[in-house]
Amino acid sequence: MSNVGRFEFILLLIVLIVGLELVARKLRLPPAAALVLGGIAIALVPGVPVIGIDPDLVLIVFLPPLLLAGAYFSVWHAFRTHLLGILQLAVGGVAFTTLAVAAATRWLIPSMPWAACAALGAIVAPPDAVAAKAVLKHVPLPERMTTLLEGESLLDDAASLVIYRFATLAVLTGSFRPVHAMVTFFFLALGGLVLGGVLAWVWIRLLTRVRDRILSITMTLLLPWVAYIGGEQVGVSGVITTVVAGLVLGWRQHDVFSADERLRWAAVWEVLVFVLESLVFVLIGISLHAIVLRHMGTAWVAQDVVLPVAGIVMVVLVSRFVWMLLTEGGRVAFLPRGRRPGWRGFSSFVAIMGWCGMRGVVSLAIVLALPPEMPNRDIMQIATFVVILVTVLGQGTTIGWVIRMTGGEPAHPRGQRHHLSVSQARALIARSQEHAMRQLAYAPDGQIVHSRLLEQYAYRAELAERFSHEQQALQGRKDAHYKALLATIDAGRAELLRLHRSGEIHDAVLHQLEHELDLQQMTAEGGLI
After folding, report:
1. pLDDT by residue (tens digit) across 348-369?
2. Among 2.80.10.50, 2.30.42.10, 1.20.120.1220, 1.20.1530.20, what is the CATH number of 3-370+380-406?
3. What's an example GO cellular component term for this entry (predicted)?
């Protein structure tokens, strides 16, 4: 296939992705599940071209932006509070699953080298935040669970990639030194931590001097690849470098970006991440096509694939529950007796966290990057795909049922900091705005100069304060207010378009006024949340 043909085929895949996303919303399926099923369907269509994918290109194209986006939107305070639990899952959990899968694979496929077994374990070990977020978007979870799942997905990628690289190197060179690997891992992680912080600091300094939204968005689009490639070139972990850069930039985003830049940046990245995530899920189906063609009509699948792959999937599922049981049991054992959760809370936590082990983008990207010289490469790719299929379709479509059956955790466990609700925070913000306006409303001689603004902000503060205490009673009036406001915005937009289409205003006037109406609409729609 020519380069033009490849580009046209990728465009066709994006069109299919949009259709699959719409189908998923219509059928109330997790988007990841629909994409996986779509990938299978594409692989089975006769005449689908087989696209040769450069393994190194897969990692460098897909991983950096997905890692940085996940880190950028992380909640830093919660991440820092639960750092120990995140590390237990991201490093300990990945290592435990890798060892369990490696041992099971070696037992099921005795001819497979230990290093290759470890590489497979590292590929299927890291749960994926993309799949988890897609599944849990409409399923509320306690803050601790959400933070652990999101934080785990950021750091487990680094741990699994480092293990994968060492295991792959051992397969290709035939030598492996555990002590050297552990020391190297420490320096890779430390170097990535330092380099990521330095790069983020440099980028923030540059962004504060570039007050052009196009240039600032372009610079942020470059950062993940600069961090990842820079880390790999320097000899440290490119994954950790990218994650740290994303965490620091996300922490400083409110100082670095203007409101307009932040809105546009978020929109650009939302589209980019959606396309990249979706393409990775579909590309695994295309790669499986080549495997099916090579082994079609042979007894290889029934004799050498079904049983080992089924065993590997079972070990992946069970090992996460075992690790959650061990780590959470150890944590609870060291808690003071008065703060220990009951058996229902403990079992609920283990069940939900164990069932939230959906694999996805990272595992797909790594398995696509397997070198052709890797022993049993086809089995490793099939096993990875089946693990993703089972976890996304099986766990992803039933996690809501598991949460309802186990009862979840209390909304505010004992000892956990209580957070203000949205309405309470809005009331405090409105009071601070009223206070600032009250100081600015009067001239030095005491004469009021902003009476209308003072009246507006005082009314907003009073209304927000009242709503925070009487939310249920006033919810209907609040919704009616914002719906009426949206109706007036729609009327204004219709008049604006009429003026433009009749030639009475210039395009520049249209864009300026439409931008103002968009901001008003965003505010009104936010009030309905």
Report:
1. 888 888 888 888 777 877 887 7
2. 1.20.1530.20
3. plasma membrane
